[in-house]
Design a protein that fits this description.
Layout lengths: L1 E12 L4 E10 L2 E6 L6 E6 L4 E4 L1 E6 L11 H6 L3 E7 L11 H6 L3 E7 L22 H11 L3 E7 L2 H4 L5 H13 L2 E5 L7 H7 L5 E3 L18 H8 L3 E5 L7 H9 L6 E3 L16 H10 L4 H6 L3 H7 L14 E15 L8 E16 L2 E5 L4
Parallel strand pairs: 1-4, 1-5, 6-7, 7-8, 8-9, 9-10, 10-11, 11-12, 12-13
Antiparallel strand pairs: 1-2, 2-3, 5-14, 14-15, 15-16
């Protein structure tokens, strides 16, 4: 007898090039079968006719409480949006990560992390920006932390906004990349309102490094003076830089995102950058389900859409997730694509008004399975 048997859903598993109406069986925390017409008994039998069944989503960029004071209650927010793995993007540093180890170990949600180059991470937010002076980087402490806790760590995080780096320009980024190269790590860099040209920022990054907030519209962006995707952005992608869309409340502009998508310059990863300042609030990121709907509205096809928050981040993170492979961990999300009028927006910096676009569809989360256990289910499903 299976523990969970999901019938008749449209299974989309980009890792295995599957898009078909199939059944999915779960037993012992693993995917037991993915095929048509499974005729067997199950403790929890579900009719997913008209629904989409996908691997549990990966939110590659969020800020999780208690790692960040402004972090989200991660299990509640993630499981209710189909997310089974979340990445904390630099809330903690070498001095503060370990105090949260019990939370990370005991969470049913898989939690990975980037480590901020600032030793205390974002502890000083929102009242004070983090210290990114390279003279204060603690290479020894960072090395020791990765040696001890590396299985749950993904790399180094730096925010390069002008208001954070001030007159240091790109020196914190250059020194972060130098340190990452020395320790064999990747780098995630926040690029909103950079201190100089975006081309210079992109030129610092290596294969496997991540530029997040790719569609932000403050300061120099990925578009050139003619409004097209810049040569430097194209060249960065060609050499293996990862482009991530993580919108939060202030890191997206339709004036950048729309032309880039039209030109086929899509994200490699879609994430949220959720904090309590954007969680469940419009016109901000709201949730991962909202991000799916927003990027679908921008014109990203459905198979590609789910690839960007399943197999793509899983491969970048080098983890066994983002797939419904038989024998693999049973992390599953079920959605229904529903016709529903919803407004998506970005919050410009010059005033408090929002640029809005009208969407036609949403992805309604109906069920989330983590390690073979139903951790969220809509009451009507």
């Amino acid at each position: 007898m299976y523990q969970i048997l999901i019938h008749n859903g449209t299974v989309i598993d980009p890792a295995n090039n599957i898009h078909d109406v199939l059944d999915v069986a779960v037993e012992g925390g693993k995917i037991s079968a993915v095929c048509k017409n499974i005729n067997a008994e199950a403790v929890n039998e579900i009719d997913a006719s008209g629904c989409i069944v996908v691997p549990g989503l990966i939110d590659h960029h969020a800020h999780v409480y208690p790692l960040a004071k402004i972090g989200i209650p991660s299990e509640a927010v993630c499981f209710s949006s189909g997310v089974t793995t979340v990445v904390d993007a630099g809330s903690t540093g070498a001095m503060t990560y370990r105090k949260h180890k019990d939370f990370i170990t005991n969470s049913k949600l898989t939690v990975k992390a980037y480590i901020n180059v600032c030793s205390t991470g974002l502890d000083s937010l929102p009242s004070k920006m983090e210290d990114v002076d390279p003279a204060h980087y603690d290479e020894g402490a960072i090395r020791e932390l990765f040696e001890e806790e590396g299985a749950n760590l993904l790399g180094l995080k730096l925010r390069t906004s002008k208001e954070i780096v001030k007159d240091m320009g790109y020196e914190p980024l250059r020194q972060t990349v130098r340190l990452a190269e020395k320790l064999g790590l990747s780098v995630m860099v926040h690029c909103t309102n950079p201190p100089a040209e975006m081309s210079e920022l992109l030129g610092c990054l290596r294969e496997g490094d991540v530029i997040t907030h790719m569609y932000m519209n403050k300061g120099s962006t990925i578009l050139d003076a003619s409004g097209h995707v810049s040569k430097s952005a194209v060249e960065a992608r060609e050499r293996g830089v990862i482009f991530e869309a993580a919108d939060a409340r202030a890191h997206f502009g339709f004036d950048v995102g729309e032309p880039a998508v039209r030109e086929g310059f899509l994200p490699d990863i879609i994430a949220t950058d959720l904090t309590k300042l954007s969680m469940y609030l419009r016109p901000t990121a709201f949730s991962m389900a909202n991000q799916l709907a927003k990027y679908s509205m921008l014109g990203i096809p459905e198979d590609k859409l789910f690839r960007l928050c399943t197999v793509n981040p899983a491969r970048h993170m080098k983890i066994d997730a983002g797939t419904l492979r038989v024998g693999g961990t049973a992390d599953i999300a079920v959605f229904r694509r529903e016709k529903s009028s919803v407004q998506f927006g970005d919050r410009p910096y010059s005033d408090s008004s929002a640029n809005l676009r009208q969407g036609e569809y949403i992805y309604r989360p109906l069920m989330t399975v983590k390690n073979g256990e139903a951790v969220f289910r809509d009451i009507a499903f």
